[in-house]
Write a structure and sequence with these properties.
Elements (H helix, E strand, L loop, with lengths): L5 H7 L3 E5 L3 H13 L4 E6 H7 L3 H12 L5 E8 L2 H10 L3 E4 L6 H17 L3 E5 L18 H11 L3 E3 L17 H10 L4 E3 L7 H10 L1 E6 L1 H17 L6 H22 L2
Parallel strand pairs: 1-2, 1-8, 2-3, 3-4, 4-5, 5-6, 6-7, 7-8
The protein binds glyceraldehyde-3-phosphate and zinc ion.
The site of zinc ion has 5 residues, from loops.
Length: 272
């Protein structure tokens, strides 16, 4: 099936499930898991993942090929890109959406840099997610205690022309426990005020029931990364512990990949 944009997925269903790719096995597992759930899915590659590989193209082109041969709709999304050059490269590589993250810039600079990326991405037919500047801590807006102000969000969307907005509503990146307390009233207020889809980052820390509540309150894209890594690593650890003579990576990565695929299937059913 062809690659699709995230708005195409959102035209078909009320919420998009988005999972991060680090290794090739993640892309394989995420697509296999989503196919089992008969759910469209967003494959996300972050700037940090590209840095880990030393370049965006190898992991991006492999993910794109996996996406193009899937039997479900798949969007290929650049996640948390702080560099304009990386966004431009992603657009050339065929990404169908990008998150431009100038959140650490002062507000006016965030607006002008984001608006420029929106104009260029739209020329490529790509969908753009962004977030408001700020706010304390290395995690920008996605830290406990940080909240997006609805009026500022409305002004930011209007000034930049973004297609979706990541909002701070109580989740936090890289949690390994699923006990974040979301501000559901704020999600509802943001949904009421902001004219574009809202994105929940740091969803690994959010329990299934709260993910459902967040969707009911107005979240339209749910980003999950760390949780899948925990699951992959536990399966790899078990495989290695069960046979200390194991040396072939396929023998321990395959159980990790299978475990991620099963969890993606389950999460696609939660995120629906
Ligand atoms: O952009 C990606 C996500 O916000 C993932 O966050 O690793 O806490 O699930 P997470
Ligand atoms: Zn994020």
């Amino acid at each position: 099936m062809p690659l699709v944009t995230t708005d195409r997925i959102l035209a078909e269903r009320r919420v998009a499930a988005a999972f991060n790719v680090i290794q090739l096995e993640h892309a394989e597992a995420i697509v296999a898991g989503a196919e089992s759930a008969a759910s469209p899915v967003v494959l996300q590659i972050s700037e940090n993942a590209a840095k880990y590989h030393g370049a965006l193209a190898p992991i991006a082109l492999a993910s794109r090929r996996i996406a193009e041969t899937a039997n479900i709709d798949v969007a290929l999304h650049l996640d948390h890109a702080e560099s304009e050059a990386l966004v431009r490269e992603a657009l050339r590589l065929g990404f169908t959406s990008v998150m431009f993250d100038a959140a650490t810039s002062p507000y006016d600079e965030n607006v002008s840099r984001t608006a420029q990326m929106v104009a260029e991405a739209h020329e490529h037919g790509a969908w753009v997610e962004a977030e408001l500047g700020e706010i304390g801590g290395k995690d920008g807006a996605h830290a406990p205690g940080v909240r997006t102000d609805p009026d500022e969000a409305v002004a930011f969307v209007e000034a930049t022309g973004v297609d979706a907005l990541a909002v701070a509503v109580g989740s936090s990146h890289a949690m390994t426990s699923r006990d974040a307390a979301l501000d559901l009233d704020l999600i509802a207020s943001l949904r009421e005020a902001v004219p574009v889809p809202l994105v929940l980052h740091g969803s690994s820390g959010v329990a299934d029931a709260d993910i459902r509540r967040a969707i009911d309150a107005g979240m339209r894209k749910i980003n999950v990364s760390t949780h899948l890594n925990s699951i992959m690593t536990a399966a790899v650890r078990d495989a290695l512990a069960s046979n200390e003579r194991l040396v072939d990576p396929r023998k321990y990565l395959a159980p990790g990949r299978d475990a991620v695929a099963r969890e993606v299937t389950r999460l696609c059913e939660v995120i629906s």
